[in-house]
Amino acid sequence: MKYMWEGRFKETIEGDVIKFTSSLDIDKKLALYDIYGSIGHAKMLVKCKIISSKDGDAILSGLKKIKKEIEEGKFKFKPSDEDIHTAIERRLIEIAGNSGERLHTARSRNDQIVLDERLYLKDVITQIITLTSDFQRVLVAKAEKNISVIMSAYTHLQQSQPVLLSHYLLSFVDMFERDKSRVKEAYKRIDILPSGVCACCGSSLPIDRDFLAKTLGFSEVSRNSLDTVASRDFLIESIFVCVMLMLNLSRLSEDFILWSTHEFGFVELPERYCTGSSIMPQKKNPDILELIRGKSATAIGQLTGLMALMKGLPLSYNRDMQEDKYLAFGVFEDTVMSLDILSKLVSGMVFKKTAMIENISQFTLATDMAEYLVKKGVPFRQAHKICGAAVQYCLEKDKKFSDLTMKEWKDFSPKITDDIKTLLTFDNSVKGKKSYGGTAPELVRKEINKWKTTLK
Questions:
Q1: Would residue 384 show up in a list of annotated catalytic residues for this protein?
Q2: Domain region containing 375
Q3: In terms of domains, do 12 and 37 share one?
Q4: What own/partner pairs with CB < 8 Å and gap ≥ 24 does 347-351 have?
Q5: Is 278 exposed, middle or buried (0-12, 13-18, 19+ CB in 10 A)?
Q6: Per-residue pLDDT tens for 406-439?
Q7: pLDDT of amino acid 8
Q8: Which of 431, 449, 450, 445 has the alpha carbon at shortest distance from 147?
Q9: Tens digits of per-residue pLDDT, 119-157?
Q10: Which of 52, 148, 277, 402 is catalytic?
């Protein structure tokens, strides 16, 4: 039999139909998961006495041989192999004969593909969690090494207030911790066995789904057969959490792209993680960072595509769902690669401390000046106006705060005294931000120590 389903057909199936409906090119990524699931399924069939131990042994032996062929690149696919399931079953029958024909008992490709996807996701999600923690540790190490470096924070891409570089780096550690939390939550909804629901309504054979769940390492068993084969929310959610992670990687990459420019000059990127120009000999381009930014855009499109794919499908299974893998696998692969390579790039990155501090405008101390007046009893709105006038005066006179005489300071407010000169410094500014979550060095050191313990 050329196709597992051709018994119902009188006409010869056209070759272009098989070519059009084949998903083997993308399914190959699931080959080992399909074998792993089939091994568990065969053990369950034997345990339930649905097939004999002799047939079970022949199936298991055949599957192990196929696994070795795939791992060694010796497995030969045929044009009639519609997908990875049929390819493996076809080869199993070649090896095990009649015993191999018994493997598909009490299952359908509808629940088989969901099993393969969930097994794949359990692996890749675990890898993403590990890589995220690794990257967090890199950022924490950089924060600890650069604890004394002050730079300007930015709002609207304009200088705002002095901040510790370490505080900036730890902000992304917090973001990635939330990302990791979402990924872990998604894993809980992946870790549910779909096998045994067959095409859509279950089986009349005495299967043991709990045994199969334990054998394959799943925490739960799906509860509704229609929902099991019809839904891809577990896949959409997994892509979503990766998209969120990629968005944060993209934002960090964007900052480092800007900081590596001549105009900023805040960081030196490691040459081994940059590329050059085919025409401009001087160029050292941040292509890794730019591609992470670009891949995050692709991931958004793939998430949108999968949601569009699912939005109008009637229950239960529809062949449209075959397209889910084309949309999904790229997101997971890009997330893994991006985390891995960005971690290496940041490890080799050097922050230019002098450039960062010399770049800060004294006007970033305006809010400190306002709070200085508030402490002397001036209502904040009045203090804001006074400081705004001081900034405008300096701009008109081409002066900095440090250039102003006490007479000029007094003209803005009689509340200003000689201590203004010593208080309005970048160092004092960051030291003063002692509210919980602020950039005061003592708080940042506590956060670094907390993260070192958490990520150990």
A1: no
A2: 362-454
A3: yes
A4: 347/138, 348/269, 348/270, 348/272, 348/273, 349/142, 349/256, 349/267, 349/268, 349/269, 349/270, 350/267, 350/268, 351/142, 351/146, 351/149, 351/165, 351/266, 351/267
A5: exposed
A6: 999 999 999 999 999 889 999 999 999 999 999 9
A7: 80
A8: 445
A9: 999 999 999 999 999 999 999 999 999 999 999 999 999
A10: 277
Written as one letter, the residue type at 356 is M
Residues in the chain with pLDDT values less than 70: 1
Long-range (24+ apart) CB contacts under 8 A made by 145-148 are 146/351, 146/353, 147/441, 147/444, 147/445, 147/448, 148/441
The C-alpha atoms of residue 333 and residue 324 are separated, in whole angstroms, by 15
CA triple 166-252-424, angle to 5 deg: 40
- CA torsion 407-411-413-418 (nearest 10°) is -10
Average pLDDT, the chain: 96
- Residues 86 and 125 grouped into a single domain: no
User: What's 36-98 look like in SS3?
Assistant: HHHHHHHHHHHHCCCCCHHHHHHHHHHHHHHHHHHHCCCCCCCCCCCCHHHHHHHHHHHHHHH
Same domain, 324 and 240: yes
Query: Is 167 among the residues known to form the active site?
Result: no
Contact 276, 352 (CB under 8 A): no
Query: Which of 156, 204, 278, 435 is labelled catalytic?
Result: 156
Structural domains in the chain (count):
3
Bridge partner residues of 18 (DSSP): none
Distance CA 266, CA 181 (A): 31
User: Rounded CA gap, 421 and 427, in Å?
Assistant: 13
What is the token pair recorded at 67? 């696994």
Helix (H, G, I), strand (E, B) or coil at 162: strand
On whether both 341 and 378 belong to a single domain, the answer is no
